[in-house]
């Protein structure tokens, strides 16, 4: 993006210059860098999207925040609570904008859900359920521990953020989780039951070994809301049995992933926050990112998934 906060991609960086050049030519981007450090030194760069795999988020985010760049970082923001806090502290210290790229929250479906809940359209919410499963065992990055693999951080994060959105960032009173691990030590399948105050509950299921329904459900005392597949990039919402479709913008290039043009909603949120002088988004705040990391850590603790980054923190329950 440019310093005027326009939605222009002006540079791309990769560890190999030829990779960055190939990407820049394909997508008509004017600058290509063979290192992230070069991009950090570019005075014309206003916002950096960090899309490296998550074991490298801490290093990349701090590189750009220390260079006074605003940062949109792919989810999960980091590998654990300690790393998330370090990134948040760096953004605050350098007085720059930072947001975890939970793109689901900015789709029109999610906007409509928040509006309905604010109006108590379905009464008091008592139950939330979210499922996300896609066969990924053939993808090395999804199954290797040193690459940050695992169903929870890759897929379950979408389910957890949905629950957190519905319950407005409230910390659960307890989490009971179970899972099946691969030989590599990462989780293939995880299920969790979350208990909240006032007799409210939530459940998640995520798996990199099989396809699930990939939908989400909100049960209230006066009705129901269902997000049809694909719940992580939603375009269909069923409210009390009535379905409404919310199409995403039409692509002008072939898409790599389903509904990829929905990322424009996320980019617009960043632009609007910068124009207003905000350092975090009210829709996906720093507190939201910290809560996500706390819940992920607790689930991993119970399931038995430990990454090398966890040796740097006291890995214990954060919900007690």
Question: Can you put this structure into words, describing what you see?
Answer:
The protein is α/β, with parallel strands linked by helices. Helices cover about 30% and strands about 20% of the residues. The strands form 3 sheets. The chain has an 8-stranded mixed beta sheet, with helices on one face. The chain has a 3-stranded parallel beta sheet with strand order 3-4-5, covered by helices on one side. The mean pLDDT is about 95.
Helix content range = 25-40%
Rounded average pLDDT:
94
Largest sheet: 8 strands, mixed
Strand content: 15-25%
Strand order of the largest sheet: 7-8-9-6-10-11-12-13
Number of helices: 9
What descriptive keywords fit this protein?
8-stranded mixed beta sheet; 320 residues; 9 helices; 31% helix; alpha/beta; 3-stranded parallel beta sheet
Could you give a short description of this structure?
This protein is α/β, with parallel strands linked by helices.
Helices and strands in order:
Elements: E1 11-13, H1 17-26, E2 31-33, H2 36-40, E3 47-50, H3 57-66, E4 70-74, H4 81-93, E5 98-101, H5 108-118, E6 125-133, H6 140-143, H7 151-166, E7 174-181, E8 187-196, E9 200-207, E10 216-220, E11 223-227, E12 236-239, E13 242-245, H8 263-275, H9 286-303
Parallel strand pairs: 1-2, 3-4, 4-5, 6-9
Antiparallel strand pairs: 6-10, 7-8, 8-9, 10-11, 11-12, 12-13
């Amino acid at each position: 993006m440019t310093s005027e906060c326009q939605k222009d991609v002006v540079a791309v960086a990769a560890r190999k210059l030829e990779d960055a050049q190939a990407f820049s030519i394909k997508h008509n981007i004017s600058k290509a860098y063979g290192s992230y450090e070069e991009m950090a030194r570019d005075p014309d760069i206003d916002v950096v999207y960090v899309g490296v795999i998550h074991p490298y988020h801490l290093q990349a985010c701090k590189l750009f925040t220390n260079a006074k760049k605003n940062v949109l970082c792919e989810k999960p923001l980091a590998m654990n609570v300690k790393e998330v806090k370090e990134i948040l502290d760096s953004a605050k210290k350098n007085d720059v904008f930072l947001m975890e790229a939970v793109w689901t929250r900015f789709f029109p479906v999610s906007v409509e859900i928040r509006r309905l809940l604010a109006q108590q359209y379905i009464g008091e919410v008592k139950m939330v359920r979210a499922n996300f499963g896609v066969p990924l065992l053939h993808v090395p990055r999804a199954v290797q521990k040193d690459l940050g693999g695992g169903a929870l951080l890759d897929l379950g994060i979408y389910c957890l953020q949905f629950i957190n959105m519905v319950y407005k960032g409230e910390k659960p009173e307890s989490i009971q989780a179970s899972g099946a691990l691969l030989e590599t030590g990462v989780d293939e399948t995880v299920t969790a039951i979350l208990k909240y105050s006032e007799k409210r509950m939530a459940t998640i299921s995520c798996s990199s070994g099989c396809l699930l329904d990939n939908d989400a459900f909100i049960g209230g005392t006066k009705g129901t809301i269902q997000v049809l597949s694909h719940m992580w990039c939603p375009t269909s919402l069923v409210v009390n049995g009535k379905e409404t479709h919310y199409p995403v913008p039409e692509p002008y290039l072939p898409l790599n992933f389903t509904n990829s043009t929905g990322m424009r909603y996320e980019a617009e949120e960043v632009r609007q926050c910068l124009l207003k002088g905000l350092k975090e988004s009210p829709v996906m705040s720093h507190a939201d990112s910290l809560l996500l990391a706390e819940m992920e850590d607790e689930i991993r603790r119970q399931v038995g998934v430990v990454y090398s980054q966890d040796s740097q923190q006291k890995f214990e329950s954060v919900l007690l």
